[in-house]
Amino acid sequence: MKPDVFDEDRPRVMVVSHERSGTHFIMNALAACYGYVSAPALVFDRRPVNINFYYPEHVRGFFAQFNEVPMRNIVKAHHAVEFFEETLAEITKAFVIVYIYRDPRDVMISLHRFMNHWPWREGPKVETCPDFMRAAPCGQMLRYQDAQHATVLHRWMAHVDGWTLGPASGQDPRIVAIKYEDLDRDYETTIRNLSQVLGREPTDIEKPDPNKNVVLPQTGKRPDRRSIYSDADLDWIESVAGTTMTRLGYL
Asked: Are 144 and 19 in contact (CB under 8 A)?
């Protein structure tokens, strides 16, 4: 893909998330308010990138090709932090990394629907969301994780902890964490808070359609958690991920 470019040097942007965490919401917001391009994004995945994600030299080389290119297209990634441990310091010389996270109770509902949508085995294909979140990760979703996890919920926790207790915890000012719920409920403040790391004020404060460019958009009313989870299910979620959820303000 030949990237779109700014007519001046600007930070390149990569958006990272666990799947179904508001990835396209923040990408579209960056496009609407700061002039980046969210469609087409440059998807950091087996297709079209087709590199060895377990080899730091390949990861380094992918990002290095844009060091002298003020690229407007956002790079989108779902990989765990372990894939970038040896290369982040070099990547952030040219890139700002935005990590977006979301309440796992909502992530599991959306991800269960997503997995059952595809005709292939993207991940566990089970009838209910409670069974899904307790299932071991499998299928094509394994490409985003560096090690196996006991359940899909444990996988979410490892992904979010890896980024928000590590690089997106303030260790590097060019790696920032955004809470999906803040972006949704206090959009203008959340967007304006990115101005310092992006080096300029937003050109506009425009909240994009939540279904714009989204893979498998929501077509009806968002499901109520109480229609999905029993009290025992909610207790189990807290028993697994309660420490992370409390730290992030979900409990």
From this structure: yes
Residue with tokens 């010389």: 93
Which burial class, exposed, middle or buried, applies to 156 when counting CB atoms under 10 A from its CB (0-12, 13-18, 19+)?
buried
Record the tokens describing residue 135, joined without a space. Answer: 């299932």
| pLDDT confidence tier of residue 46, bands split at 50, 70 and 90 | confident
Q: Classify residue 209 by its DSSP letter.
A: P
Name the band, by pLDDT with cuts 50, 70 and 90, for residue 215. Answer: confident
Sequence ranges of the domains in the chain:
12-206+220-247
pLDDT at 219: 54
Q: What is the pLDDT of residue 209?
A: 82
Taking residue 224's Cβ as centre, other Cβ atoms within 10 Å add up to 9
What is the rounded CA–CA span in Å between residue 240 and residue 197?
34
Measured in degrees and rounded to the nearest 5, phi and psi for residue 39 equal: -145, 110
Structure tokens at 164: 């928000």
**Closest CA relative to residue 4, chosen from 28, 31, 25:** 31
Residue 128's φ and ψ, nearest 5 degrees, are -115, 155
Q: Is 231 exposed, middle or buried (0-12, 13-18, 19+ CB in 10 A)?
A: exposed
| Options 3.30.930.10, 3.40.50.1980, 3.40.640.10, 3.40.50.300; CATH of 12-206+220-247 | 3.40.50.300
Residue 220 has pLDDT above 70, yes or no: no
CA gap 233, 47 in Å, rounded: 36
